[in-house]
Amino acid sequence: MTQQVFRLPDLGEGLTEAEVVSWRVAVGDTVTVDQVVVEVETAKAAVEVPIPFAGTVLTLHGEAGAVLEVGKPLITVSGEGTHETYRTEERAGTKEPEGSGNVLIGYGTKEDNGSRRRRRRQPAPALVAAVPAPEPALAPRVINPLVRGLAKQHDIDLSAITPSGPAGIVLRKDVEAAIAAAGNAPAAVTLPDAGGPERIPLRGLRRAVADKLSRSRTEIPDATTWVDADATALLAAKKAVQAACPEQKIGLLALFGRICVAGLKRYPELNSSVDGQAREILRWPHINLGFAAQTDRGLVVPVVRNADRLSTAELAAAMAALTERARTGTLEPADLTGGTFTLNNYGVFGVDGSTPIINHPEAAMLGIGRIIDRPWAVDGQLAVRKITQLSFTFDHRVCDGGVAGGFLRFVADAVESPLGLLARL
């Protein structure tokens, strides 16, 4: 019986490992070419991984929660597959590898007609290999180690539980329901070691965020300046723009993005990064606008490429599409890299100000506080206006306070008088 091992493929963007989120198949299942067999989470995004050959599942190499390195065995199947044949011919020098064309979202196993935005390099022979004998198979139902530990703690037989998770996975709530039915439910969630802290591994997105922010704080001498701005006119302009473009929802974040793009064109020093080894400032000719988006997986920063070439409606559409993909976990690694400036709307959390950490290797970030009613002097008279606090954090290596203050004042003036900005576009 022919056995084939599909190894965790090259994930691109310098990624070297991924965490198994959930298996879509079990031992004994029959799989077809390009069938999605597992969902993994990298430091950039959650990714569905299809298998490039067909057969019967013999082994799943890792339970949910396991971290696998690129090139390590992912799944072993039996039967005749498409890849082993051309691997043998390729080694003999008689045939070019073709592949199924769908190993990973955004990364194909063959060159296509240009419909994909990214193309991965030709896969290495090490990704697929025949082995003489299968490794011991995992149980058909993959269970999180923490869930398994909770069941053991309360003497719950996992085989007697009806799973509610996808692909027959026993979830924590299933075990808790069994504990309650047995009459020994704990008053509160009890950690295995009640005397010590819960240890949560830094993996996936959380690890990537930790590494990037630590590097930013270590390398970038940042400074922050802020100003209060009257956003009453901006809210009115939003209604007017929306009325003129009813087919596309125009949000405040898109308007702030448009203002930032105009500001960066006036102050190009801020649309840059620093090459510390070469001791050079890299000033970018394009503006790739990143914006912070909170998701169930944590904070991500999708990037709208060439934002300076988009209209306000196009910018709003691009930001809306990226936000939806961030919430559903379908962002590709390329969607989260290459930014030259970041917009951070922390006002959605009900706060006024912040001193954020710059999104390395960028040189600046604009923060937007909540917009609330406050007393404000207008033409010498006290009035209630819609006020927001704007903060601007910048890399002091690329500019001095005059440039940073000039950019922030430009943004504040555009917020208070958006028609003046439109007149200059």
From TrEMBL:
EC number(s) given by UniProt: 2.3.1.-
Cellular component, GO annotation: cytoplasm
Compositional bias segments (type: Basic and acidic residues): 82-98
Statement: the UniProt record of this protein carries the keyword Acyltransferase: yes
Region (Disordered), start-end ranges: 82-124
Limits of the Peripheral subunit-binding (PSBD) domain: 142-179
InterPro entries: 2-oxoA_DH_lipoyl-BS, 2-oxoacid_DH_actylTfrase, 2-oxoacid_DH_E2_comp, Biotin_lipoyl, CAT-like_dom_sf, E3-bd_dom_sf, PSBD, Single_hybrid_motif
Keywords assigned by UniProt, alphabetized: Acyltransferase, Lipoyl, Pyruvate, Transferase
Family: Belongs to the 2-oxoacid dehydrogenase family.
Protein name stated in the entry: Dihydrolipoamide acetyltransferase component of pyruvate dehydrogenase complex
Organism of origin: Crossiella cryophila
